[in-house]
Structure formats: structure tokens, C-alpha cells
Amino acid sequence: MTSIDILDELRGGLIVSCQAYPGEAMRDPRTMAQVAQAAVVGGAAGIRVQGLDDIRAVAGMTVPVIGLWKDGDADVFITPTLEHAKAVADAGADIVAIDGTRRRRPDGKSLAETVAALREHTDALIMADCGSLDDALAAERAGVDILGTTLSGYTAERPKTEGPDLELISLLAARCSTPIMAEGRIHSPAQAAAAAAAGAFAVCVGTAITHPATITSWFVAALTEES
After folding, report:
1. Facing residues of 14 across strands?
2. pTM
3. According to CATH, what is the number of the domain 3-226?
4. How big is the CA angle at 118 (ends 112 and 124), to the nearest 5 degrees?
5. H helix intervals, 11-91
6. What beta strand segments (E) does 22-179 contain?
7. So which residues are the signal peptide here (predicted)?
8. Is a pLDDT exceeding 80 seen at residue 18?
């Protein structure tokens, strides 16, 4: 698919993030691929996966694949370096998601330098996982294809909201021309619809669809409060 085709596929759609944390029962590329396939059957317009093995396991699906590589324990750990980004693209991702904040990256390169070098390496689109309006404006200047609200509430620039950061989505929609993907703490269909209404080009949901341990804990907590 061309970049235009990929964006058209995602426009107005739901992207399902299929990730399991290290040590969890579902932490297996085959399992994540099956979860991704189930999401596509349910109507997902795209899939987001973490780790090279998981990306390889879902590469070539009928919907666009957003790939990332979480590595390290520094502030910047979502596809933190140019080499990580190249590896994600080489594993088969249609879209490479990278840390889109203005924080120092482990390899010392700026976001703009990373984007420019990645463009020379691959035709994959680039998604910047941002934490604020200033992040998004800088990422847009760097030339990324998609702006994500993924890191809102996880940097020092914005408070962590109970649900999606609708204010940030609205700010980005008003100030940026690059498509906006709402992501982060979207736990219900109503919240997904609210994110779209706030100006999101597409909506990404992970935990509320693909993380049984967390979903189970929500129900357990509700029953505990009633007892």
C-alpha cells in the first residue's frame, strides 16, 4: 500500500494495540498475532504491536501494522533510537511509531534527524508518540506522518487524565495539519467516540480490548466496592 492508501485505510477507524508485558502469560508473538487477527475480524482498521518478533508475526496482514520497539529504562524507550526505528521498519511495519517528545534520545539524535534518516531507509510511514502540543508541533515540523497522543500524562508537560486527554486532542486538531491518532486511557466505546469528536483522525485502543489481566481487575475492583 502507498502512504495515501494506508492513511485512507485508517481514517475514522479503530486501531487495536495488541501488546503483553514481559512475564505475562500472553507474552508470545503467536498469541499476539491471534489477538490481532481477532481484532481484525471485529472490524479493526489497523493493528499496533510491540517488539520485532511480534511485528514479524503480523506483517502482511490485511490492515496496516503500526510497529514499535520498547527498549531500555530511560525516559525515551518507545523505539528510542534510529537503529531501533530501522529495525522496526525492516521487520515489516507499515508505520513506525517512535518517541515523539522533545526529550533527549539515547543516541543523541534529534527527532528531526531521526525522521530524516529513517526516510532514507524506508518507505514506511512515521508516527510520533507525543506528550504535549509542543511535542506535536515539533514532530510536525520534523515531517512525521501521524501524531499520537500516546504519551500525554507520562511526561512532565501534561497531567494524567482519568480517560483520554480530550483537551490535547482538540489542541492538536486546531493547531496541526498532520493526522492525529488518539491513544492512551481510552477504556470505553463512549470515550473512543469522544476522542473522534474532539478531532482525532483515528483512535487506538489497547488495554480495554487486549489486556485480560487489567480488564479482569476492573471487574474485581467493582465487585469489591459493592461488598
Report:
1. 203
2. 0.97
3. 3.20.20.70
4. 120
5. 29-41, 52-58, 82-90
6. 46-50, 65-68, 95-99, 125-129, 146-148
7. none
8. yes
